[in-house]
Amino acid sequence: MTDIMTKFTSYIGKRLPTDIKEKLADLREAETNPMANVLFDSMAENQEAADKLNRPSCQDTGVIQYFITAGAKFPLLGELEDILRNATLGATKLGPLRHNAVEAFDEKNTGTNTGSRIPWLDWEIVPNDDSVTIDVYMAGGGCTLPGASTVLMPGQGYEGVVDFVFDVVTSRGVNACPPLLIGVGVSTSAETAARLSKKAILRPVGSQHGNANAAKMETLLEDGLNELGIGPQGLTGNSSVMGVNIESSARHPSTIGVAVSTGCWAHRRGRIRFNADLSYEIVSHEGVVL
Amino acid sequence: MKKILTTPIKDEDLADLNVGDIVYLTGRLVTCRDVAHRRLIEQKRQLPVDLKGGAIFHAGPIVRKTDEGDFEMVSIGPTTSMRMEKFEKQFIKETGVKLIIGKGGMGPETVAGCAEDKAVHAVFPGGCAVLAATKVERIEGAEWQDLGMPETMWVNKVNEFGPLIISIDTKGNNLFEQNKARFNEKKGPILERIKSQVGFIR
């Protein structure tokens, strides 16, 4: 499993997931602004070169994060932390990945992409299941910088959520390599909203929240942000975002926690599912050979 | 025809450039980001590379050592330039750098620096790091390697490196500020329309 996760972690730095690839192709097709066309062409040329030369498509391969949805009966549950740490070490050499783990306060780059609590592991345990689904996420500094979380008063309502999302995207999103995938968490506190906003950008582009009001808000935000015409790299164009995904939880009656996470156009994430016998399926990328 | 800037860049090479123009760079390009800026400005340390008439790239690349012991550029894309805003004006003054390449916009201090000491800021498309690496002919030097791979000052020989979109010119224009004003102008009516439809709390 370590070997497969090493190869998979390295792989997702090089090829974009199928949903992102298709969305970018659609946006490129619909673009009419000449400068935006130059940029979309460079992006396509870059992905071809990354594929041909077998190199990470963006130099910033991020601090590696794994989001684990594990069945309580998955046989290697106790070993997973070590497996993923070793996979990060291996992928750093195999990629190669840039060394991005800097120990806080000591301010030393570890040179291995591992460090205190890094790779970052996010756990969700599912009862009565013996499989595990792992999302690997490689976010660069640029698309991590706009991340923000706050707690609104109920009087500000969902209108306040809309203001917050637009503020984040227009003030800091332009530097995050648009067209962006916007994740919004609507929840009870700063940290629960933040976590959900990250989970939201792990969801496929074009997927919808199960609640009708939330799904409506996803569409309204996506259309509204696109109307701004931020364009690739914030240099204007017909689009601003690849999509807006909202994840939510119940909230305290007196609070509306809201957070925004942004994924850049080079949204490097991958989803892999292991069965109890360690046979696996790659969910995010079509036609992968590891 | 492709407009190509060649290092060392002279003031007159930049005089006709306007925001939104697309250019390419041939010559020497040095990576330079947060810590190198801090060391020069805050710690008053001398840079290990002469940047007069030169070009810097706000970037932290992936580099590997070849079997012969040379460095090979694997992947090198731009990083967020705004992080260097605090230092860039003085950096331009002290080093004589003429071309600053990065990602996203920079602020009023850099605009002032570019106007006073005749320099420009240009954007290389973010996330296009392999495309950029294919324009690096070789790595000629690696200074301050104690800072680790992203922060080392990598000295590169590049050929027709681009596309570079001029975002700050020598006349005080700032493309990202112009765009920002445009986005803000559009924002008001869009927000009103969306907000009228999300009054879920009743």
From TrEMBL, chain B:
Catalytic activities: (2R,3R)-tartrate = oxaloacetate + H2O
One of the Pfam families matching this protein, by short name: Fumerase_C
Documented EC number(s): 4.2.1.32
Domain Fe-S hydro-lyase tartrate dehydratase beta-type catalytic, chain residue ranges per copy: 6-178
GO MF annotation terms: L(+)-tartrate dehydratase activity
Highest taxon above the source species: Bacteria
Keywords: Lyase
Gene3D superfamilies named among the record's database cross-references: Fe-S hydro-lyase, tartrate dehydratase beta-type, catalytic domain
PANTHER family: L(+)-TARTRATE DEHYDRATASE SUBUNIT BETA
NCBIfam families per the UniProt record, alphabetical: PRK08228.1 (NF006082), ttdB_fumA_fumB (TIGR00723)
Similarity-based family: Belongs to the class-I fumarase family.
Protein name: L(+)-tartrate dehydratase subunit beta
